[in-house]
Amino acid sequence: MIARLLKTWTPRLTASVALAVSFGLVALAPSGLAAQEPASVPPSNPPPSNPPPTASPLHELIDQQIAAALAAKSIAAAPLADDAEFLRRVYLDLTGAIPTFGEAKAFLDDRSPIKRQQLIDRLLNSPEYARQMQRVFDVILMERRPANRIPQPDWERYLRESFAANKPWNQLVREIVAADGADASLRPAARFYLDREGEANVLARDVGRLFLGRDMQCAQCHDHPLVDSYLQADYYGLVAYFNRSFIFTPKDQPPVFAEKAEGDVQFKSVFIEGATDQPARPHLPGEAAADEPQFEKGQEYAVAPADGVRPVPKYSRRALLPAALPRAENLAFRRNTANRLWALMMGRGLVHPLDMDHPGNPPTHPELLNLLADRIAAMNFDVRAFLRELALSQTYQRASEPPAGAAPPPESLAVAPLKPLSAEQLALAVLQATGVTDVLRAELGPALNEPALYEKLAGNLAPFVAVFGGQAAQPEQDFQATLEQTLFLANGGVLRSWIAPRPGNLADRLGRINEPPAVAEAMFLSILTRRPTPEEAAELAALLQARAADRPAALQECIWGLIASDEFRFNH
User: Fold this and answer.
1) Span 55-63, mean pLDDT?
2) 38-42, 435-439, 447-451, 517-521 — which is least confidently predicted?
3) Any idea what DSSP says for residue 80?
4) H or E element that contains 265
5) By 3-state DSSP, what share of the chain in percent is helix, strand and coil, each rounded to 5?
6) What mean pLDDT value characterizes the chain?
7) Helices marked H in 96-186 — which ranges?
8) Rounded CA gap, 172 and 204, in Å?
9) Where are the domains of the chain?
10) Do 19 and 533 form a contact (C-beta atoms < 8 A)?
């Protein structure tokens, strides 16, 4: 029968159910611009408050605020996750994959009281962390768009090297919104513009969503009908940064982003009868419009437009954006940065959805979001240091199984949420669980390093992205299992080929272990990053005894059952 992804998940139950499916005991149904001075910052956009030198570590302040909020609502928090749950969670979040059998066993056997902190630091300083951030922010920034103008490998290398060097997030954003593709060293950063075809409305929408946490798309024709603070004038203030820009293709050269010296933005509300056109100059929402210089006719260009010549205006509207957007003083920018990184680790934003930050949708913990926004600015937008503080918090390290009684609401943060694995995480987790990654490590021998290993693994990610990835040019949606995904895990040739015995993979290793308890430990640690319960070990031993004649097939069914389980499909 085809195993369906279960609608509910209980950490210690799902694996046994999956095994029972494999055993036939249960049948489940299928289912590059010069910086210009930004507009002045109004008083409504307060600068971040710098913490005093003796301030408590951020992770302690997080826990204090969450504890106070839970106490005020008489909500009981889950205890800390056990070592196995924490281990799998932090590996998936910081490296995008699950640990090896050896890594899992070593961590669970380690009795050091500071082993969690040591693990967090080791993962954050690993090349796998930079690779994971590359994947995460590729999806956030480009939303799986096809790479039509900038090769995908170039863009990925730019992101990976930026995170490996721990480039501050505001610097990375500044490079992305300044790049025009003419500077070869920053050409990959221009993908944000070029692969959106330089379309001003698309760019305005995505800058607002991704960097300010404000999806103002519904303010194109009138003030937002549901959000009072999303104004049509502010939407067109974003459009005005891009309305003069266009894609220019020099002779025998790749395309670049260019800009004209003329072109104005005007708008009027379709809801107001007799409304007249209103001009819009570049400005961020809630900030003052930029003052624009005036030039005599014929004096507007540093490089005048001509056939085959890329024009360069003396005054660039788009050059205002790198200076105005990623500032520590920009409250919306620092709130959005903190909220998105929080969501990456905690499973949901303090403002949720992430791109609907407005007074009508306040944060679940307003003071905490203000604290996080101020602290990340004070940390010079150090993503690695910020994620470290989140990972060290008890809030992050809570168990995913609620305490006795009714499950608390997810926004309370009393329980660690279940986070569906991304397409890439699922692929890498399956590769590691089945032992394919271990086989490739052995094949590389002395040449083994992270880039070489990933090069061998990378081709295996595409089938998972095709089935489990989001729609191109759209934000990743909340988890919904589809029949295609279920069939991929149940009957797909990719997964079955990885499960089949091959020298050095999991099925091969298990086949060479005689003692049932050792088989159970190796299977569960390799796939679920935990040791089996006594009941699961006994169930597996009984199965192997009953199917001694076809033991290899039984082992493969058990491997498949665990991989197809909800426990594997989610980060918990």
Assistant:
1) 95
2) 38-42
3) B
4) strand 265-267
5) 50, 5, 45
6) 90
7) 101-109, 115-124, 127-142, 152-164, 169-178
8) 18
9) 14-31+421-571, 172-324
10) no
- The answer to whether 540 and 19 have CB atoms below 8 angstroms apart is yes
pLDDT digits (tens, 9 = 90+) for 183-211: 999 999 999 999 999 999 999 999 999 99
User: What confidence score (pLDDT) does residue 44 get?
Assistant: 53
Which phi and psi angles does 265 have, rounded to 5°? -110, 130
pLDDT for residue 362: 97
What does the buried/exposed string (b/e) look like for 286-301 if buried means 16 or more CB atoms within 10 Å of the residue's CB?
A: bbeebeeeeeeeeebb
379-430 pLDDT, tens per residue?
A: 999 999 999 999 999 999 999 998 887 789 999 999 999 999 999 999 999 9
If you count DSSP H runs as helices and E runs as strands, how many of each does the chain have, helices first?
26, 8
SS3 356: strand
Nearest 5°: the CA angle 466, 471, 477 is 110
Q: Nearest 5°: CA angle at 97, between 95 and 102?
A: 105
The distance from CA 329 to its chain's CA centroid, rounded to whole angstroms, is: 25
DSSP state letter for 306 = B
User: What gap in Å lies between CA 259 and CA 257, rounded to an integer?
Assistant: 7
487: enclosing H helix or E strand? helix 483-491
pLDDT at 24 over 70: no
Predicted pLDDT at 458: 96
C-alpha distances in Å from residue 9, one per residue of 16, 91, 371, 380, 453: 12, 20, 33, 39, 33
Q: How far apart are the first and last CA of the chain?
A: 26
- Report the run of H or E that residue 371 belongs to, with start and end: helix 366-378
**Long-range pairs for 46-51 at CB < 8 Å and ≥24 separation?**
46/331, 47/328, 47/329, 48/328, 48/329, 48/334, 48/373, 48/374, 48/377, 48/378, 49/374, 49/378, 50/374, 50/378, 51/374, 51/375, 51/378
Q: What is the DSSP string of 310-343?
A: --EESS-STTHHHHHTT-TT-HHHHHHHHHHHHH
Name the maximum alpha-carbon separation found in the chain. Answer: 91
- Residue 13 scores a pLDDT above 60: no
Could you tell me which residues come within 8 angstroms of residue 280 by beta carbon, excluding any fewer than 6 positions away?
233, 236, 237, 239, 240, 264, 265, 266, 267, 289
